[in-house]
Amino acid sequence: QLVEAMKEVSGNNNIIVENVTGGSTGTGTNQVIDSEADGYTLLIAANNVMSVNPVMYRQNFDPAKDFSPITLLGTVPVVLVVNPSVPAKSLRELVSYAKAHPGTLNYASSGAGSPQHLSAELFKSVVGISMTHIPYKGAAPATADLLAGQVHVLFAPLNSVLPHIQAGKLRALALGSKDRSALLPGVPTIAESGYPSYESDIWVGLVAPAGTPAGVLQKINQDTRAVLTKPSVKKSLTEQGIEAKTSTPEEFRELAAQDL
Questions:
Q1: 8 Å CB contact between 158 and 136
Q2: Nearest residue to 203 (alpha-carbon basis) of 234, 245, 156
Q3: I need a surface site. Which of 55, 125, 175, 206 has the fewest CB within 10 A?
Q4: Which positions ≥6 away from 112 have C-beta within 8 Å?
């Protein structure tokens, strides 16, 4: 839907989405970096590409030097979910259970350095508990094993587990974001549950290869912002647990640098 709206706003019907996997997002990232800096090849980059991977992995690119930021696209809250077999109905109960049964709980992630992994490690540090990390090759198998009860806890992007929460297959205990989600109004944030220093969410932005002319970046920025303010697009994203947000190229660069 986002692409269709972009076609309408930009007047360009030749927009192609290419999903490139591999190398902890490095394969697709390098593909964009090596493209012509003419505004015709862009990358939808989450904060792991811009701010996490540079310090987690040896990689042959520097996001601060190899990209021209265009705009922030949106944010996704991280939600702490547990399998219903876990005897905890609140965050406080989960922490108490983990402290009373050290080493009992494990948590899944989509891999080392992923938002799920880092969100959980930050949580362990803030609340002072121990959980065993079970890394998977992607979010889908991690979620599948959580649903099956093979693992106990998962810090997940809200949009990826919302249907399971609504179906009662997973129990949401708290959100990592600053504010509650309208989709889960009864679920508190970790900060308001007694741990005010905790904050973890996922942001996604649009970037071009370094050296893309400023006028081109500005034009794409304006068109993208026009798309993200369309009621139909905002409604669709909100229903998926994604909050549409935009920025100037400079604001997006500062956000990535601050997170890094």
A1: no
A2: 245
A3: 55
A4: 56, 135
Name the residue type at position 167: A
First to last CA, the chain: 31
61-74 pLDDT, tens digit each: 888 899 999 999 99
**How far apart are the C-alpha atoms of 46 and 122, rounded to whole Å?**
19
β-pairing, 243-244 vs 132-135, is: unpaired
The contacts of residue 16 (CB under 8 Å, 6+ apart) are: none
Q: Are 45 and 102 in contact (CB under 8 A)?
A: no
Beta strand ranges found along 176-254 (DSSP E):
201-209, 243-244
Instruction: Tell me the per-residue pLDDT of 154-190, one tens digit each, with 9 for 90 and over.
Output: 999 998 999 999 999 999 999 999 999 989 999 999 9
Q: Minimal CA–CA distance to 2: which of 233, 218, 203? A: 233
Cα–Cα distance, 221 to 215 (Å, whole number)? 10
CA distances for 145 relative to 14, 127, 140, angstroms: 39, 25, 9
